[in-house]
Write a sequence for this structure.
C-alpha cells in the first residue's frame, strides 16, 4: 500500500490562475479530509468528503474554493483565481470507513502552493 | 469553540533530559485527543491517541479533563525525537472526524 498520494508536490501559479490539487487515498479508504497549513501556523481543517459526497465543508472559504471526490479517481481541491494569501501547504488525509472520530487519519506528503 | 493550544513554539533539551510538550484544549463535550509527529522530510503521522492509553517510542500522554490538558511526556529524550509535534482533537461521536490542530511545537534534542 503506497499510502496517501498527493500531486503535484509543488505548484506555482500566478495570481488569477486556477490551482488543482489531487489526492489519492489509501486503498480501502473512503473518507478524505483536506487541511491547509499557512506559514507559521498549524493545520486547519477545510473539508471532509466521502465518495461523491461532501460531508462537512465548514472550513472551506466561501468563494473560489471547491472540492470533490468522484466515484472513480482522486479527490480534487480546486482553487479558482488564486491570490497570494492562498500560498500554503495543502494536506490530504484519508481514513477507512467506520466510526469516524476514532479512526486514524493517514496523511499525504502535502502540496506546497506558491502564488506569485 | 473548539481550540487546541500548544504554548511553546520551540522546546530545546539535551539528550537524556525529560521532555514535556504542553497541550491544552477547549471543548465542552468529550473530545478524543491525539499527538501527531512530523520528522524531517517525512509526512505527518499519528504518534498516540488518548483512547488507547499506549506508550509509543517511550512517549505517553494522559488526558486531564479537569485541567483540559493532554501533555506529551518522555522521561529521557533521544536525538531521533527531534521533530515537529502537533496536538489535535476530534469532537467525539457526533463529529465528522475532522481534526482540530494546535500550532505545533518543534522539539530539538541536542547531543
Amino acid at each position: 500500500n503506497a499510502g496517501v498520494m498527493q500531486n503535484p508536490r509543488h505548484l506555482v501559479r500566478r495570481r488569477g490562475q486556477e490551482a488543482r490539487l489531487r489526492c489519492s487515498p489509501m486503498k480501502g479508504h473512503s473518507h478524505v479530509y483536506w487541511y491547509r497549513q499557512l506559514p507559521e501556523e498549524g493545520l486547519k481543517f477545510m473539508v471532509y468528503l466521502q465518495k461523491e459526497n461532501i460531508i462537512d465543508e465548514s472550513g472551506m472559504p466561501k468563494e473560489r474554493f471547491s472540492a470533490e471526490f468522484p466515484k472513480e479517481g482522486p479527490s480534487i481541491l480546486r482553487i479558482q483565481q488564486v491570490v497570494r494569501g492562498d500560498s500554503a501547504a495543502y494536506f490530504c488525509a484519508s481514513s477507512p470507513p467506520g466510526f469516524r472520530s476514532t479512526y486514524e487519519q493517514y496523511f499525504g506528503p502535502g502540496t506546497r502552493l506558491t502564488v506569485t | 469553540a473548539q481550540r487546541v493550544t500548544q504554548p511553546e513554539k520551540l522546546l530545546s533539551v539535551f539528550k537524556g533530559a525529560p521532555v514535556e510538550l504542553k497541550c491544552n484544549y477547549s471543548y465542552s463535550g468529550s473530545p478524543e485527543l491525539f499527538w501527531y509527529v512530523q520528522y524531517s522530510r517525512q509526512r505527518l503521522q499519528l504518534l498516540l491517541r488518548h483512547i488507547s492509553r499506549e506508550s509509543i517510542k517511550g512517549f505517553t500522554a494522559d488526558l486531564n479533563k479537569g485541567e483540559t490538558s493532554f501533555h506529551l511526556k518522555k522521561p529521557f529524550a533521544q536525538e531521533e525525537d527531534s521533530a515537529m509535534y502537533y496536538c489535535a482533537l476530534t469532537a467525539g461521536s457526533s463529529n465528522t472526524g475532522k481534526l482540530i490542530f494546535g500550532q505545533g511545537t518543534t522539539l530539538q534534542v541536542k547531543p
Notes: The two ends of chain B are 41 Å apart (CA to CA).
